[in-house]
Amino acid sequence: MEHEYTRIIEALGEDASREGLRDTPARAAKAMKFLTRGYTQTLEGVVNGALFPSDNSEMVLVKDIELYSMCEHHLLPFVGKAHVAYIPQGSVIGLSKIGRIVDMFARRLQIQENMTKQIAEAIMQVTHAAGVGVVIEAQHMCMMMRGIEKQNAIMKTSMMLGSFRENLATRNEFMALIRG
């Protein structure tokens, strides 16, 4: 990867051996590996058995989970927040694991629409919840720094599974909670 960054810098017309750029290919390769570390993670490894018995059957919501991802179309960042809720059925997941699941999918080359679905399906798979709701709000540098250059556009995506899809009251409660 480091070699390829050197080639990119040179293709831009720069001298990759000049002082300011000499270590850039190594730094860029290290940064890209960090930004896409989700490829080295598995759902089982992230959750690490952190499911706990519970008779709670009311909505559990974690909102404003910051996320940083990379657009698979332009390799530019998109940043935002995820709101994740589920209705437990006999067990709850460790609180930090929800944020870790968001990160695992965000830290890959992505489009927001697919990431929203992947997070919802992973939460459902792990928790066996009665329902899962995920809403993601993000700003995309591919739309802000290039192309149409719209600085204030926010993309919102949602995925509703189980009772969040089937029961309007559950969906409305979720949406009201993330607004409030």
Description:
The protein is an alpha+beta fold. It has two domains: 2-35, no CATH class; 48-179, GTP Cyclohydrolase I, domain 2 (2-Layer Sandwich), CATH 3.30.1130.10. The protein has eight helices and seven strands. A five-stranded mixed beta sheet has the order 5-2-3-6-7, sandwiched between helices. A hairpin with a 5-residue loop joins strand 2 and strand 3. Helix 4 (95-106) packs antiparallel against helix 5 (112-127). It is elongated, with a radius of gyration of 19 Å. The mean pLDDT is 98.
What key phrases describe this protein's structure?
GTP Cyclohydrolase I, domain 2; 42% helix; single chain; 2 domains; elongated; 180 residues; 8 helices; five-stranded mixed sheet; alpha+beta
Kindly state the percentage of residues in helix.
40-55%
Number of helices: 8
Report low-confidence residues grouped into runs of 5 or more: none
Number of domains: 2
Mean pLDDT: 98
Radius of gyration: 19 Å
CATH fold label of the largest domain: GTP Cyclohydrolase I, domain 2
Q: Supply the CATH class of the largest domain.
A: Alpha Beta
So what's the oligomer here? single chain
Distance between the termini: 44 Å
The portion of residues forming beta strands comes to: 25-35%
CATH second-level architecture of the largest domain? 2-Layer Sandwich
Overall geometry: elongated
Number of strands: 7
CATH superfamily of the largest domain: GTP cyclohydrolase I, C-terminal domain/NADPH-dependent 7-cyano-7-deazaguanine reductase, N-terminal domain
Largest beta sheet: strand ordering: 5-2-3-6-7
Order of helices and strands: HHHEEEEHEHEHEHH
Given the helix and strand composition, which structural class is it? alpha+beta
Major beta sheet summary: 5 strands, mixed
